[in-house]
Write a structure and sequence with these properties.
There is one protein chain. The radius of gyration is 17 Å and the shape is globular. By secondary structure, it is an alpha+beta fold. The strands form three sheets. Strands 1-4-7-6-5-14-9-10-11-13 form a ten-stranded mixed β-sheet. The protein is about 15% helix and about 40% strand. Keywords: Cell shape, Cell wall biogenesis/degradation, Glycosyltransferase, Hydrolase, Peptidoglycan synthesis, Signal, Transferase. GO terms for molecular function: glycosyltransferase activity; peptidoglycan L,D-transpeptidase activity. This is L,D-TPase catalytic domain-containing protein.
Length: about 210
């Protein structure tokens, strides 16, 4: 029984090694960048960032990876998203990831970027939560929309994966397993990522 923690730790270490990346050391942290924001006519509220663990605040970290700058790497186990930058660095964001039974891993590409997107719950979600049927034709953009201020749409060789990197008004969900497989960021963070990442960028979910 004593071997179980070691096996889990070794598995996580192996996953990181297979991705060819590791991070250590923060070079800059953006804790003061979570104030109220006016964006496209919407007033995003201030995030009480002091209530969120410091490790999930947006920050530039040293990051050793074989992936080229512009790549996005998601580490669901540690609830981090890395945007690879030049010179061995990355912008790191705290994220919320898929709850048990909804997590996934693999490689995709960002095929579309949308500001203040419409959210359309997929049929399986409506089946699980019938109250969402009213949004079958799409929930309009807004402060309560689950996709938040921005969405990045992930496609692979088979087409739309159905998964997104997106904002979310529920800042308390960062650092938790909460979604149906999408990767969610604080709204202020998804705006920052949206402005950095390009269509066609590679996305790796470990």
């Amino acid at each position: 029984m004593r071997l179980k923690p070691f096996i889990i730790a070794a598995g996580l270490a192996l996953a990181t090694a297979l991705a060819g990346c590791s991070s250590i050391g923060t070079t800059r942290i953006f804790t003061n960048d979570y104030g109220a924001v006016t964006d496209a006519g919407y007033q995003l509220p201030r995030i009480p960032i002091q209530k969120i663990p410091r490790k999930y605040h947006r920050q530039i970290v040293r990051y050793d990876t074989a992936e080229k700058p512009g790549t996005v790497v998601v580490d669901p186990a540690n609830k981090f998203l890395y945007f690879v930058m030049p010179d061995g660095k990355a912008m790191r964001y705290g994220v919320g990831v898929g709850r048990e039974g909804f997590g996934w891993h693999g490689t995709a590409r960002i095929a579309m970027k949308r500001e203040w997107p419409t959210w359309t719950p997929p049929a399986p979600m409506i089946k699980r939560q019938p109250e969402l049927a009213k949004w079958r034709g799409g929930m309009p953009p807004g402060l309560t929309n689950p996709l938040g201020a921005r969405a990045l749409y992930l496609f692979n060789k088979h087409g739309d994966t159905g998964y997104r990197l997106h904002g979310n008004p529920e800042w308390k969900s960062i650092g938790r397993n909460v979604s149906s497989g999408c990767i969610r960021l604080m709204n202020q963070d998804i705006i920052d990522l949206y402005n950095r990442v390009e269509i066609g960028a590679k996305v790796i979910v470990l």
